[in-house]
Every structure is written in structure tokens, then in C-alpha cells.
């Protein structure tokens, strides 16, 4: 004779009341069916630390260093948001990328990548990207830009930032297969011996390469998990004035540049090449509006026009002279405040 089954008793605490689990997180009303992690409104980006030598070993993955605007693409059921490195909403400025993100077939995701405009050889051209946006402070939308996605921070209810890069890459490759679509593409790993990478990148005219540690989670800031190795140095500097020229196109002979040292500015030389006539005319008009009789750096010159430190420019250069001035400097374009461009720090000099 079998015993009658007794109803199972609930787990009891010492007071003999039934224990009930508490929800770990409050549900997001915008994502009522979310079973795991709420989507963050913003993730501070992981930034690459500048190094002169390519790290070697199986722990490292290598990619092209793209020269554009760092963006986070937030995909949700209610729509797509495009957030700059500085935390500004630029969805309206990259409508093609936003539309392509909607077509990826994913409910929720955060892609980390770089918006670029490519030249005829398939290299990223920062100046062309700036022109597509109408220059610094421009209001144009960029229809020519594409996104090279290189990381996946969130996918369908799961926060991936605590997951190692190798896993995040595999998920990204499933989401954006090789070739991708015309507007959102995978930043593919470079399959070459590490010892040959930089030489190859420089020979084909790339800015450099990025090395990433395969086993690390996604950590914000310059932690050393990501490294950048450049063929040509490129940094952001503050424009503190210009040298007038009657013969130069646009009336500017050169821009006067400064790096930062605490709350002060330190003169680092000038740049007189790389800008077009229209670039020079726009720069002169803007700098004339910022004109000041009190230079922020100790310079004197009959043809110098000094300006309040407001405009940030990206400069390509080949090194430094013995007196700490830029060597073989060339203008690449104006940086946007929303891009959170960091002016070159000379504190350690």
C-alpha cells in the first residue's frame, strides 16, 4: 500500500513563515520583459593607451586604428540612439548609421565603434568626415559616414561589459557577419604576425593599429587593456591664435598651438599646412570672433593675432624638436566639444 503524497512544504525561516525571494532589480518599464540586466543609459568608453611598440603574444588581438568619431549605438525597441564619446546625442547627425542599426534584427544592444568616411583606397579620412558634418559646430548630417563596430557591450538583456573580449567579439561577429552591410561593418581582426603589423599598416597608409587584450572585460578609461600604436603621431591641441599672411590662402599663414599643463597653456609651435582655402577662411572668421589682446601663451609677433582658447584641432606630426615644438605638423581638422577631445597634456615635460 502506497503512502498518500503530502503537499510539499514551503521553505520556512526561524519564525516559521514562508521565505520568498525578492526581485534583484526593479524592472525597467520601457523593457517590461527584460529577464536580466537593464540597459545602461551610457557606458564610459574604454580608451586606448599610446605605446610605441606592438605587444606580442597570444593574449592580444589586433585591429586597424580608425580615424573618426567614437560612437556608442544604443538599439532599443523604442528606437536607436547614437551617443558620442562625450555623452552627447548625435542620432540626428548620423541618420544612415541609425537606420542601419534598426535593420540588424536585434531587440536591444549597445555597439561600440567609430564613424568614419573612407577615401578611394578604403582608409579613414578624418578631414572628409568633418566636411561631411559641416565642420566644427556644423549642423549638417553625414550621409557618407559608415560605422566600424569593434565591441558589443549589451545584447538582448545581458550586460556584456564583465565578459572577456574574446566572447564579446564572437557575439559581435554573429550580429555583424564579415562584410556586414554597407553602413555598419565589423572592424575585423588583422591576421598577420604581430612583428609585421605596424610596418604593414604604415606601408598601406593607415594611421596605426589597436592591440586589445583578449581576456579582459570592458573597463572604462585608459587601463592598458587596449593599446594604440601609430605610424604617425596625431594629437589634439588648442588654437591660441594665428599668423596673418597676405599671400596665403584665406589669410592665415599658420595656426598657433598650445598643449595644457594643469590650468595653464604651453606653446608647442605652429602648423601651416593641411588646410584648404575654405578651411583657412572658416578658421580666420572664427578666430577673429575670439580675438583677444591678452595672449594665453608668452608670444610676440607683428603678424600674430591672438585668440581665446576655444578651438581644438587635430594635428598630425612626426615628433618633437629639442625645444619642444611640433615637427612636420599638418592640420587634419577641428575637433568637436561633443567628441570630448582631450587636449595634449604636457605636464610631464
UniProtKB/TrEMBL annotation:
<feature type="region of interest" description="Disordered">
    <location>
        <begin position="1"/>
        <end position="38"/>
    </location>
</feature>
<comment type="similarity">
    <text>Belongs to the ATP-dependent DNA ligase family.</text>
</comment>
<keyword id="KW-0436">Ligase</keyword>
<dbReference type="InterPro" id="IPR050191">
    <property type="entry name" value="ATP-dep_DNA_ligase"/>
</dbReference>
<dbReference type="InterPro" id="IPR012310">
    <property type="entry name" value="DNA_ligase_ATP-dep_cent"/>
</dbReference>
<dbReference type="Pfam" id="PF04679">
    <property type="entry name" value="DNA_ligase_A_C"/>
</dbReference>
<dbReference type="GO" id="GO:0003910">
    <property type="term" value="F:DNA ligase (ATP) activity"/>
</dbReference>
<feature type="domain" description="ATP-dependent DNA ligase family profile">
    <location>
        <begin position="138"/>
        <end position="230"/>
    </location>
</feature>
<dbReference type="InterPro" id="IPR012309">
    <property type="entry name" value="DNA_ligase_ATP-dep_C"/>
</dbReference>
<dbReference type="GO" id="GO:0006281">
    <property type="term" value="P:DNA repair"/>
</dbReference>
<dbReference type="InterPro" id="IPR014146">
    <property type="entry name" value="LigD_ligase_dom"/>
</dbReference>
<dbReference type="GO" id="GO:0006310">
    <property type="term" value="P:DNA recombination"/>
</dbReference>
<dbReference type="InterPro" id="IPR012340">
    <property type="entry name" value="NA-bd_OB-fold"/>
</dbReference>
<dbReference type="GO" id="GO:0005524">
    <property type="term" value="F:ATP binding"/>
</dbReference>
<dbReference type="Pfam" id="PF01068">
    <property type="entry name" value="DNA_ligase_A_M"/>
</dbReference>
<protein>
    <recommendedName>
        <fullName>DNA ligase (ATP)</fullName>
        <ecNumber>6.5.1.1</ecNumber>
    </recommendedName>
</protein>
Amino acid at each position: 500500500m502506497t503512502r498518500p503524497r503530502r503537499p510539499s512544504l514551503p521553505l520556512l525561516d526561524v519564525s516559521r513563515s514562508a521565505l520568498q525571494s525578492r526581485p534583484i532589480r526593479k524592472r525597467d518599464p520601457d523593457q517590461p520583459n527584460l529577464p536580466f540586466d537593464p540597459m545602461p543609459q551610457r557606458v564610459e568608453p574604454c580608451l586606448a593607451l599610446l605605446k610605441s611598440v606592438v605587444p606580442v603574444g597570444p593574449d592580444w588581438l589586433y585591429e586597424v586604428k580608425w580615424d573618426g568619431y567614437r560612437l556608442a549605438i544604443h538599439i532599443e525597441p523604442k528606437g536607436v540612439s547614437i551617443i558620442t564619446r562625450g555623452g552627447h546625442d548625435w542620432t540626428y547627425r548620423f541618420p544612415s548609421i541609425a537606420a542601419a542599426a534598426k535593420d540588424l534584427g536585434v531587440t536591444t544592444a549597445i555597439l561600440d565603434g567609430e564613424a568614419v568616411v573612407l577615401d578611394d583606397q578604403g582608409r579613414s579620412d578624418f578631414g572628409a568626415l568633418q566636411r561631411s558634418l559641416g565642420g566644427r559646430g556644423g549642423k549638417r548630417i553625414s550621409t557618407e559616414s559608415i560605422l566600424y563596430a569593434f565591441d558589443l557591450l549589451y545584447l538582448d538583456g545581458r550586460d556584456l561589459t564583465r565578459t572577456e573580449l574574446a566572447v564579446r567579439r564572437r557575439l559581435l561577429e554573429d550580429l555583424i557577419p564579415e562584410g556586414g552591410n554597407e553602413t555598419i561593418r565589423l572592424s575585423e581582426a588583422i591576421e598577420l604576425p604581430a612583428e609585421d603589423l605596424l610596418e604593414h599598416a604604415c606601408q598601406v597608409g593607415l594611421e596605426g593599429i589597436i592591440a586589445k587584450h583578449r581576456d579582459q572585460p570592458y573597463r572604462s578609461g585608459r587601463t592598458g587593456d587596449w593599446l594604440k600604436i601609430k605610424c604617425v603621431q596625431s594629437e589634439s591641441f588648442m588654437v591660441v591664435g594665428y599668423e596673418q599672411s597676405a599671400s596665403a590662402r584665406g589669410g592665415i599663414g599658420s595656426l598657433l598651438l598650445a598643449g595644457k599643463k594643469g590650468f595653464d597653456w604651453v606653446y608647442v609651435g605652429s602648423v601651416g599646412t593641411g588646410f584648404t582655402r575654405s578651411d583657412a577662411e572658416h578658421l580666420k572668421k572664427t578666430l577673429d570672433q575670439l580675438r583677444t589682446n591678452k595672449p594665453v601663451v608668452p608670444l610676440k609677433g607683428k603678424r600674430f593675432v591672438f585668440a581665446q582658447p576655444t578651438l581644438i584641432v587635430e594635428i598630425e606630426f612626426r615628433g618633437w624638436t629639442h625645444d619642444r615644438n611640433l615637427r612636420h605638423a599638418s592640420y587634419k581638422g577641428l575637433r568637436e566639444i561633443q567628441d570630448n577631445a582631450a587636449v595634449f597634456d604636457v605636464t610631464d615635460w
